[in-house]
Each structure stands twice: as C-alpha cells, then as structure tokens.
Design goal:
Length: 321
C-alpha cells in the first residue's frame, strides 16, 4: 500500500485561526466518551472501592490519554482524512488547526495523562495507559492502518484496554475479569468497524486504506463479520459466570447477543446488489446496534456491582453472595 502523503501535499488547505471547539474535536470526544464509560466500569466493578475523588481523577487522566491518542491519530492521518467524506471536516483537513498544533497537543496530553495517572493511582495503570496511547498512535495509526487488512483486528486492542486500566487503577493488578472485559471489546471491534466499512467502502478505497472490504471484497467481509460475531458470543456469555457477572448481566447478554448474531446473519446472507439497492440499511442498522450492544454489556456490569444485585446473585447460588 503506497503512502499518499507526497501525492497530496500541495493540496493542503491554508490554516485559519483555531477555536476551542476545534481542539476539542481533535480529541475525538465521541470515542473518548466510550473510553471513559468502559474505564469507569472497570474501576467500579473491581473488588476494591476507591474514594469518589480518586475515581474522578483517574477517569479524567484516562480521558486525556484517549484524547491524546485521537489528536496524534488526526495529525498522522490528515492526508487520508482529507480524501474521505466521513472525515473531511476534521480540524486539520478543514484547515482550522495546523498539523504541528495537533502533534504538540497530542504529545503534551500523552505525557501529562500518564504521569498524573501514575501519581493519582498507580504506575501499572499509568504504564498500561502509556502503552495504549503508543499502540493506537504508532502501532495502529502509523503502521497497521495502511499496511494490512487486519488493521482493525489487531488495532482493536487499543480500544479494549480502558476497562483493564480502570480495573488496575482500583486493584493495582490485572485480574481475569479485566482480561475478559478486554476480550469482549477486542472481539466486538472487527464486526463493528467492518459493518461501517461495508457502506463506507468508497471512502477507504479512495484513500487507499487496506480495509478488508477494499482488499478482499464485501462478500469476504460479510463472512468475517459473521465469524467474529459467533466467536464473540462465548466471550460475552462466559463473562456472565465470573465475579463481575450475574443473572442480570447474563439475561442482558443473551438478548443482546441473539440480536447481534441475527444481524450478522442477515448481513452475511445479503447479495451486494440488494445491499446497494436499499442503501445498505441493514449494515447501517447493525453498525448502530453494535454501539448499543457494547454499552448494554458494560451497563449490565455496573448493575451487577450494586448491593441489591449481589443479593440476587446469592439467591441464584451460581455466582456467590
């Protein structure tokens, strides 16, 4: 895959005066919100209870680390963002923020977030945050994204670390439950992003990003969505029988996974002409539901961490009182 930076360097827009909102957009606030939520769940479901101020401080620094990753991603990807309809209005391709400003913000927030999380919580959590920023900005953005159709599969680890970091903030160590929360997001990421790629394939093709839809076609991508969805189910359901699971989580997970598998099956069964004719509505619905799918699982983890849910688990006798 050829790097296209040199091809469009002369097309870079003039940079205007950036406002506060432009710098906020550099931090990818929508992605950050998911990071914050899953990290918060990781903290709150851990067996160690922290003071609310400690929790707040840790989440703020994890959020800053996520924002730093976003800024570094936008700095490096400004050339292809400019070519893709979905990303063309981001601050750098739109000309409101200079690339150097984005790089400076990303590096500054990276260092600040890691150091402050180490001081506020522990250095293992800070180390995991540092690795997450590095993995997203360097391993995924600078290497995998433009070199292999497995970019999303491997790169998905970056988005899977936040609940593990939250768990380590509270406990100081990596537990089985933290690994399972990581695995849940890691296995969810490919079907989530490949469903997006099905209806945004022209963007990736134009930018020469080797998404699976570009390199192997939509039919192969549909089959992989179904395969990863089926592989995700035992991870999601199995987590229900651990210390962070319970009958409430398991009921939610069964319902969500049934709908998710049905959606993946429908995507796999569709012919391309049919999908194109209806504007990829099935694929778009699956992509939208995938966000609710992940939110629902982690919300259920939170519910299971409440005292009344612990009483219910005791009644069932499978999870312990």
């Amino acid at each position: 895959m050829t790097d296209i930076r040199a091809d469009i360097a002369s097309d870079e827009p003039e940079t205007g005066e950036a406002g506060f909102g432009d710098f906020v957009q550099l931090l990818k606030p929508r992605v950050m919100s998911l990071v914050v939520f899953t990290a918060l769940v990781g903290v709150l479901v851990a067996p160690v209870r922290l003071h609310p101020v400690e929790v707040l401080a840790a989440i703020i620094f994890i959020a800053l680390g996520a924002g730093a990753s976003g800024a570094l991603n936008m700095w490096w990807d400004a050339d292809i963002d400019r070519l893709m309809k979905r990303t063309a209005k981001r601050p750098i391709p739109a000309g409101t923020v200079a690339p150097g400003e984005a790089l400076g913000l990303g590096l500054s927030l990276s260092g600040l977030s890691v150091i402050m999380l180490g001081l506020a919580a522990n250095w293992l959590a800070a180390g995991l945050l540092a690795f997450t920023v590095f993995f997203y900005a360097v391993v995924y953005t600078m290497w995998l994204k433009r070199s292999t159709p497995q970019n999303i599969v491997i790169g998905g680890a970056a988005g899977a670390f936040p609940p593990m970091i939250g768990w380590v903030v509270a406990t100081g160590h990596i537990g089985v439950e933290a690994v399972l929360m990581f695995a849940l997001i890691f296995m969810w990421t490919p079907p989530h992003f490949w469903s997006l790629a099905l209806f945004m394939n022209s963007d990736y093709s134009k930018a020469r990003v080797p998404m699976l839809t570009v390199t192997h076609g939509r039919a192969v991508t549909r089959a992989n969505i179904l395969g990863y969805t089926l592989a995700l189910v035992p991870v999601a359901l199995g987590t229900g029988f651990t210390a962070i699971g319970g009958p409430i989580y398991l009921a939610v997970a069964i319902a969500l996974n049934a709908v998710f598998v049905l959606g993946a099956w429908r995507i796999w069964c569709r012919h391309e002409a049919e999908a194109e004719a209806d504007g990829y509505r099935t694929e778009k619905r699956f992509f939208t539901f995938s966000l609710a799918y992940l939110f629902g699982h982690f919300a259920a983890f939170l519910v299971e961490a409440t005292p009344w849910a612990a009483m219910l688990r005791g009644q069932f006798g499978l999870w312990g009182a």
